[in-house]
Specification:
The chain is mostly helical and 32 residues long. The chain contains one helix and no strands.
Amino acid sequence: MNKTITTLPTTIKLVGITARNFKHTRDESRNL
C-alpha cells in the first residue's frame, strides 16, 4: 500500500509528460 502511494504521483507525472509530448508531436505534424 505504501508503494502505491509513492508511485502514484510518479505515474501521474509520466502520463502528463506523455500527453504533452503527444500533443506537441501532433501539432508539429500538422504544421508540416
